Amino acid sequence: MAGYLILFYVDEAAYAADAPADLLAAHQKFQAAHGDVLRGGGQLAPSATATTLRGGGRSPDYAAGDDAEVTDGPFVETKEALGGYYLIDAPDLDAALAVAREVPVVFGGVEVRPVVYP
Amino acid sequence: MEPADAALADAHRHEWGPVLAATVRVTRDLDVAEECVADAFARAVESWRADGVPARPGAWLTTAARRRALDRLRRDEVAARALPWLVTDEVAPDDPAPTETDLLALVFTCCHPALAGPARVALTLRLLGGLTTGEIARAFLVPEATMAARITRAKKKIAAARVPYRVPGPAELPERLAAVLSVVHLVLTTGHTASEGDALLRRDLLDRAHDLARLLRARFPTDPAVTGLLALVLLTDARSAARTGPDGELVLLADQDRTRWDAGMIAEGTALTREALRGRPVPRYAVLAAIAAVHAEAPSAAGTDWAEIVGLYDELLARWPSPVVALNRAVAVGFAAGPAAGLEALEPLRAEPALATYHYLAAARARFLQELGRSAEADAARAEAALLTGNAVERDFLGRG
């Protein structure tokens, strides 16, 4: 079984202004329907709350440590920001896309990425 | 040519896809499968020259390629793999015959919507059609290195994202089949008028379009879009022999020797068109085939039912609007109602950005202007068209004046 990360990208301004009241209920329904393959997930607080650490790779364990440059905001500024994710198990891309099609998402879309487990 | 070499050329043309599809089942890796198939063909050169051509060349090649694959698998057993194995359904690993299902699985994998459109066409021509990267690059006007990178990237994605090697189930089938059909259609149109080069046709591409359309029709005989596409392939290719003159120069539909059209293909294509037109909703390929069928059944250009053709383009324009369809419709209007009407229909399209570099618009204007006796304007339009085409045969034609 392989893993896929389903990332939701959302227009935050539109979402803040006009998020449907029953979106949370839709997610709960999705989670109940796909509980057998869901390995994790959650909604992310708005990208304005993000803190980014850049740099690193010089120490033996590749960690940024004290070299990290700390900045306010997400790693990449985009109109549609990362707004949440689900981690799922699926045997192949078609199965993953079938689950991704059912993720409730407004003002954006989802990206499906294979997870490379060690 | 020696009989062995002729048999090899024939096998390369007809068996590459089936042999590869059967080998992928063993290797579960597209690159390794390609290497094993290439190796089998290389062995065939020696073996067939020395011992004669086997009774069933395809089966011989499949056995050789799969044996090579099993050898490699044993040798690489302990080697760490950078990419996951191709996801396949379980079948008996020693199932010897290349099956139609394997071939279709390869088609659906190459044409998966998760791959970029140009990569789908390239993979299909290379893995199913056995075309080289260079041949594919020339057909689509990109440098060979670009095409090679595109193919490599797509293969990596198939493995890393686990695009499955299988014929999709009923729920996914409509969307997936539509993606396959659009690849076959692009192979057909590219083969029919090569984008670049000295020949108007790319016979290799037309042959692949035939094979793919037949394969799909065999598996999905009641699908009207599949039926319509096979009809379109037949009716388009039926005119191939008459489209160029003795020196390879372009001959317009109106001036073609219709006795050189392939009557067998026209009869089959017309019957399939009728069948496809019964689909509801009527698929786009059925309407395109119907246009080709009206041309194919006409005794001459003047005797063509141009009003019928305008009507079919109206339907295309209403449901699948595009600048090129609008252009074709305007040209048909010119033949149905005269050059002045055609010129008038073309006029608004001159402002269409998508057509600004499309030489058919200028060529059509040149023709109608000439018929109206406006020679100076016709010359200018013809010169513009000649500048815009990348195909030498078409350029010569436009230069003839």
From TrEMBL, chain A:
InterPro entries for this protein? Dimeric_a/b-barrel, YCII
Spell out the coiled coil positions from the record: none
- Return the annotated region ranges for Disordered: 48-70
The YCII-related domain covers which part of the protein? 4-116
- Entries under Pfam families matching the protein: YCII (PF03795)
SUPFAM superfamilies xref list: Dimeric alpha+beta barrel (SSF54909)
* Family membership: Belongs to the YciI family.
Protein name (record): YciI family protein
Organism classification, top ranks?
Answer: Bacteria, Bacillati, Actinomycetota, Actinomycetes, Pseudonocardiales
From TrEMBL, chain B:
Q: Which residues form the RNA polymerase sigma factor 70 region 4 type domain?
A: 109-158
Q: Where is the RNA polymerase sigma-70 region domain?
A: 19-76
Instruction: State the superkingdom.
Output: Bacteria
Domain DUF6596 per the UniProt entry, residue ranges: 176-276
Keywords recorded for this protein, A-Z:
Sigma factor, Transcription, Transcription regulation
Q: Does this entry carry the keyword Cell division? A: no
Enumerate the InterPro entries for this protein.
DUF6596 (IPR046531), RNA_pol_sigma70_r2 (IPR007627), RNA_pol_sigma70_r4_t2 (IPR013249), RNA_pol_sigma_r2 (IPR013325), RNA_pol_sigma_r3/r4-like (IPR013324), WH-like_DNA-bd_sf (IPR036388)
Q: Does the keyword Metal-binding apply?
A: no
- What Pfam families does UniProt report for this protein, alphabetically? DUF6596 (PF20239), Sigma70_r2 (PF04542), Sigma70_r4_2 (PF08281)
Q: Which protein family is named in the record? A: Belongs to the sigma-70 factor family. ECF subfamily.
Identification of the protein by name:
Sigma factor
What organism is recorded for this protein? Actinomycetospora termitidis
